[in-house]
Amino acid sequence: MLLSFLSIIAMSAAVPQSYADHDAAELLRRCDTRATKTLEGKYLTGWCTGFIEGVAEMVLEAEKGSWHICVPANATVGDMMDSAVAYLRAHPDEGKYSASTTIITAWQNKYSCEPNI
Question: Which residues of 64-92 are buried (b: 16+ CB within 10 A; e: fewer)?
């Protein structure tokens, strides 16, 4: 158990902590490991889930309707993560952009809705 804890701490030290380091290519690298059962895959899945939830919270709490994203009530964080990863795979040229901005673009494409007038 101590070895597992130390391994997680070692992986945390190797992961950039600055949000400026989180471009869309890095997000794809981290979030594309969801299916792996390794300790690193589990760590990255947790990181990705937290990042996705943070962006979702930001979108929901920001000025309502400004991004025109209508996520279905039954959508899970996993669904939102999958849609972001699918978008990043389909648009590798956007890897240089901000991870959070690219997630919002992915959700605008997947969960588009008409603006409230």
Answer: eeebebebeeebeeeebbbbbbebbeebe
**Least confidently predicted of 30-39, 58-67, 89-98:** 58-67
Q: Is there a contact between 94 and 88 (Cβ–Cβ < 8 Å)?
A: yes
Residue owning tokens 């070692």: 10
Q: Which residue has the tokens 């849609």?
A: 83
Residue pLDDT, tens place only, 72-113: 889 998 899 999 999 999 999 998 888 988 999 999 899 887
All structural domains of the chain with their residue ranges? 2-110
- Residue 12 identity (one-letter amino acid): S
Cα dihedral sign for 56, 62, 64, 67?
negative
Question: Scanning the structure block, which residue is given the tokens 């969960």?
Answer: 111
Coarse DSSP helix, strand, coil percentages of the chain, rounded to the nearest 5 percent: 65, 5, 30
**pTM to 2 decimal places:** 0.68
